């Protein structure tokens, strides 16, 4: 049961705010003018942290609905790292923090036109989703095994594209655009335990910024990005490891 409960700790968005720094008194004996004296001072106590990591497994997806009747589903994969602050006390709420992580996104066709092939906009392999380092990501495991979490991420999108209806032109990569979004996830510890924790989101609004100007995928879009309002859902399968 303990292993099953630990499995719910790591989800895209794990942590409670750290407690105030603790201190301890350290004393030593020194000689002052030939006499021994004890001098004490307080030092910070290094916090106890249980390192954790998680693999986002095959079968994890994000689905974007542009409102045109054809939702696009992309595959997700990657690794997340973090820690549980302090000791774990079963039967109480448990919090953890996710400190870093990046998810790759499976190249996916997004927009088609009158050409037989290829589509005129496809996600490039350089597209990735990373944890927003400026935000604190939190999750709570309740005594009943339910998990509620919030993940703030940045979607760095790169497209392979060509002009619409220019059927004789190849796809070329664009510069990147960033789309920040906060996702609320929920799940329940089940028989999968450490090996497969299933987490999902309710549909949520996402404005996806896209670049259609050819450029270096590692550089910011050289043109004016186009903002696409979408409705998104996320489904993740997570394998927890009690190590970095």
- Low-pLDDT residue intervals, each spanning 5 or more residues: 1-20
Q: Determine the strand fraction and express it as a percent band.
A: over 45%
Please, what is the average pLDDT? 84
Tally of discrete structural domains = 1
Q: Can you summarize the main beta sheet?
A: 12 strands, antiparallel
Measured between the Cα atoms of the first and last residue, the distance is 22 Å
Q: What report would you give on this structure?
A:
The chain has 244 residues and is mainly β. The chain has a single domain, classed as Porin (Beta Barrel). It is built from 1 helix and 18 strands. The chain has one helix spanning 2-7, and strands at residues 23-32, 35-44, 49-56, 61-65, 72-85, 94-95, 97-105, 109-111, 121-123, 128-131, 138-141, 146-157, 159-161, 172-173, 177-188, 197-200, 204-210, 226-241. Strands 3, 4, 5, 6, 7, 10, 11, 12, 15, 16, 17 and 18 form a 12-stranded antiparallel β-sheet that branches. A 4-stranded antiparallel β-sheet has the order 8-9-13-14, with no helix packed on it. Strand 11 and strand 12 form a beta hairpin. The longest helix has 6 residues, at 2-7. It starts with a helix and ends with a strand. Mean pLDDT is 84; it is low at 1-20.
């Amino acid at each position: 049961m303990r292993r099953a409960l630990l499995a719910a700790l790591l989800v895209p968005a794990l942590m409670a705010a750290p407690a105030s720094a603790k201190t301890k008194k350290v004393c030593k004996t020194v000689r002052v003018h030939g006499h021994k004296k004890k001098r004490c001072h307080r030092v910070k106590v290094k916090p106890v942290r249980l390192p954790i990591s998680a693999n986002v497994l095959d079968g994890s997806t994000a689905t974007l609905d542009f409102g045109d009747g054809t939702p696009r589903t992309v595959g997700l994969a990657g690794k997340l790292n973090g820690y549980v602050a302090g000791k774990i006390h079963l039967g109480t709420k448990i919090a953890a923090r996710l400190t870093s992580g990046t998810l790759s996104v499976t190249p996916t066709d997004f927009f088609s036109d009158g050409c037989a092939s290829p589509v005129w906009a496809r996600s490039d392999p350089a597209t990735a989703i990373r944890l927003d380092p400026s935000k604190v990501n939190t999750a709570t495991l309740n005594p009943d095994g339910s998990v509620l979490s919030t993940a703030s991420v940045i979607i760095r999108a790169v497209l392979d594209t060509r002009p619409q209806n220019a059927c004789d032109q190849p796809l070329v990569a664009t510069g990147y655009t960033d789309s920040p979004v906060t996702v609320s996830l929920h799940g329940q510890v089940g028989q999968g335990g450490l090996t497969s924790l299933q987490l999902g989101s309710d549909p949520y609004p996402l404005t996806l910024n896209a670049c259609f100007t050819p450029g270096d995928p590692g550089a910011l879009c050289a043109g004016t990005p186009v903002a696409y309002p979408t409705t998104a859902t996320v489904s993740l399968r997570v394998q927890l490891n009690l190590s970095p």
